[in-house]
Amino acid sequence: MNTLSKRLIAITQRVDIIADYGERRDALDQQWIKLLAAMDALPLLLPNHLRQAQSIVEKMKPDGFLLTGGNSLVNCGGNAPERDAMERMLLERTLMTGTPLLGICRGMQVIQDYFGTPLQRIKGHVTRKQTIRIHEHRVETNSFHDFGAYETPQPLTAWAWADDHVIKAVRHKSAPIMGFMWHPERHTPFHQHDLERMHHFFANQGEST
């Protein structure tokens, strides 16, 4: 663990493009900070700048990486290539160092895209309430994505599905990499099973429940 008493989780941010000011801003929903606090973890906000983010990670040595939602991948028509490059670097670092990496919504798509999962435009997955299957259990959660996949080539395996067979969660067979498509930070209050799953993942070096 990091020398700090609490786990230090490096968290990525969306790119907001403000045309009126000619600015590209890094932004993060404050709910993420509250969720990490509920997990007794500290956030390390990473900029969407490849070399700076790499230097921060090398210096601070966080206990985990959290890829958040927002921004479509460039491969899916998105316009934030700097974020794609930075998050791909984090994935590669995880494969080299074993630092646990969790991807949420877009973050899971980053994982899928990196390992060759074909993403396609889907319908009916932008809703505040959606019932999915996690292993053999039915769970109600949310969904806010327009791209998804119906297959999971190795080295990823699926562990949650929507009723239309869109894959809702994946994990790597051997590396500490996991992703799911719902937004735990958008539940009020936070769902206990999300908090427990995320805490277990980071506390146990990528082991998933």
Average pLDDT number? 94
Helix fraction by DSSP (H/I, runs of at least 4):
25-40%
Q: Would you tell me the structural class of the helices and strands? A: alpha/beta
Q: Can you name the CATH architecture of the domain at 7-116 and 175-203?
A: 3-Layer(aba) Sandwich
Give the uncertain stretches in residue-range form: none
**What is the beta-strand fraction?**
25-35%
Q: CATH H-level name of the domain at 7-116 and 175-203... which superfamily?
A: Class I glutamine amidotransferase (GATase) domain
- Count helical runs: 5
Distance between the termini: 20 Å
| Largest β-sheet summary | 9 strands, mixed
Order of helices and strands: EEEHEHEHEHEEEEEEEH
CATH overall fold name of the domain at 7-116 and 175-203: Rossmann fold
Tell me the overall shape: globular
Radius of gyration: 16 Å
What's the CATH first level of the domain at 7-116 and 175-203? Alpha Beta
Order of strands across the widest beta sheet?
A: 4-1-5-6-13-12-11-8-9
| Count of β-strands | 13
Give an account of the 3D structure.
With about 210 residues, the chain is of the alpha/beta class. It is built from 5 helices and 13 strands. It has a domain at about 5-115 and about 175-205: Class I glutamine amidotransferase (GATase) domain (Rossmann fold, 3-Layer(aba) Sandwich), CATH 3.40.50. Helix 3 links the parallel strand 5 and strand 6 (about 100-105).
